[in-house]
Write a structure and sequence with these properties.
Layout: H1 3-9, H2 37-51, H3 64-68
Length: about 70
């Protein structure tokens, strides 16, 4: 079998001819840590200052249980 025939018989021409290199392990993806309320407030204040907006006071979200009553 010629070199061209061997190359054409591979599924994807990788040049390894039968997995001569071991597969690379997949990196472990860790979930992102949720932001603390103080971190969120500091980040929001920095963004508001960068665009020249006054700092807004955010109201708490309504409780879903009170809407069902």
């Amino acid at each position: 079998m010629s070199a061209l025939e061997r190359l054409l018989t591979e599924e994807l021409p990788t040049g390894t001819f039968g997995d001569a290199r071991p597969p690379k392990p997949r990196p472990v993806v860790r979930p992102a840590r949720p932001w603390l309320p103080a971190e969120q407030a500091a980040h929001y204040a920095a963004l508001a200052a960068a665009i020249g907006e006054p700092h807004l006071t955010l109201l708490p979200a309504p409780d879903d249980r009170s809407a069902a009553a």
